[in-house]
């Protein structure tokens, strides 16, 4: 089942060269944060380039339920009239975050230190994902939570009426957990300190500073020590959301495996906490160049140019790079199928608790299409067959996971036989223009009857 309706089966078959320019949508992580931080200021925040995927639309709806005025002006232009730090109203309805782990975890954080309660739910995927990783640190502020067994949604959060600041060492490499604690720390008096051993995406820290919060990051032997001073008055901003490197990954990887391709993907943020995939692809021998490198809004940005790469080689992907490409492993495993030799991907336990268990989901679908995958609790290895040699021909389960669905559709662009997915519906959560965008480059993706 797709997250918001009947399943949408899709099939992708080998096509001619992919060529042209692919303007991918706005960054999902930054889009969620723009709406949430906008809701925590008094005054009007304006946003351009917002990702209008279902995940972000669900966050917009949630911010309205907490009292912010969120307006869609068309074409990715949005405004948020916020209620200020500590100004959230108690929602009179259940907050449905759909498929979005980022949405629910960040929103839990930002309401956790206000004297209000809220009940959260989501689709079957989200309701199966662990929330204790967020409610455990929130409890240190004085927040209470009651959910289903194993800390699953639906769950009610009772915000702390008199929050205390916390010092928290994040036990898993997760920007969602780090961000939930920082957002909760906004309405606690004094200094909240979050320590992460491995650097994860730092959009929350950068954006909090942009909104005028007092926040600093120090790199120590313990890792990154982030200190936030609570109860600031956040100042409304104008935010231009950069385009999403995680969405850019799909046209880039497709171009590398489809013979003759040459695709330009402009304006992609190359924040080092997000760009691990592109480094990895270059190490595999990908013809991937950064053109027009520049800085925008304090972030490195470039136009990516990806061309068919006949000599891809399997590599060892460094475990310490995992956090900077955590959402890109599914599509990397597709590229690895067309490389020669093995691609070993260690240090990726977190892949097991995403929208699906992404190692299991990719292993099953790749195996059905003729590719051998070995795995353990926190690693997996794909044995590549080389260009032109991947059989394909099977239907893969997407498990309510947008990135699994898109990865298998990319696979089918270069296999001997077409590849199908049982449900492409979840693609709309992060990349609603995936089909026309890929079709515009020359891909042959069809909706097929159930
Ligand atoms: C995100 C963090 C990552 C990532 C997700 C977006 C964010 O999750 O997988 O798609 O915006 O903070 P984790 O923090 O659980 O690793």
Automatic annotation (TrEMBL):
3-phosphoshikimate binds at residues 28-29, 33, 174, 176, 327, 354. It comes from the Bacteria. The active site is at residue 327. SUPFAM superfamilies: EPT/RTPC-like. It is found in: Cytoplasm. It is an enzyme of class 2 (transferase). GO terms for molecular function: 3-phosphoshikimate 1-carboxyvinyltransferase activity. The keyword Transferase applies. Its main location: cytoplasm. Residues 16-436 form the Enolpyruvate transferase domain. Keywords: Amino-acid biosynthesis, Aromatic amino acid biosynthesis, Cytoplasm, Transferase. It catalyses: 3-phosphoshikimate + phosphoenolpyruvate = 5-O-(1-carboxyvinyl)-3-phosphoshikimate + phosphate. Catalyzes the transfer of the enolpyruvyl moiety of phosphoenolpyruvate (PEP) to the 5-hydroxyl of shikimate-3-phosphate (S3P) to produce enolpyruvyl shikimate-3-phosphate and inorganic phosphate. Monomer. Belongs to the EPSP synthase family. This is 3-phosphoshikimate 1-carboxyvinyltransferase. It comes from Pseudosulfitobacter koreensis.
